[in-house]
Write a structure and sequence with these properties.
Radius of gyration: 11 Å
Shape: globular
Number of strands: 0
Number of helices: 5
Structural class: mainly alpha
Order of helices and strands: HHHHH
Number of domains: 1
Strand content: under 5%
Largest sheet: none
């Protein structure tokens, strides 16, 4: 429950139709069903900030808009 997988190719693991916010928030919605959408948004922003990505800049981007390193950081934030 407290760990997640980070695949070597982040573009293969990120859904190209989902924003970064949805990709990072999905595990929270699945694991913590009682968590409200405001809490999910706050935790997503915190996770991105932890991996060095500015939430206001990256939450609404899609994987195609990210560099390889940024996509890897999103995958780490999601895990």
């Amino acid at each position: 429950r407290d760990s997640g997988l980070v695949y070597q190719d982040p573009f293969a693991s990120l859904n190209p139709r989902w924003t970064v916010a949805r990709s990072v928030g999905e595990p929270l919605r699945l694991r913590r069903r009682g968590m409200g959408s405001d809490d999910v948004a706050r935790r997503c922003a915190e996770a991105l900030d932890t991996v060095g990505l500015e939430p206001s800049t990256f939450l609404n981007r899609y994987p195609a808009d990210l560099s390889g390193g940024q996509a890897q950081r999103v995958a780490i934030a999601r895990a």
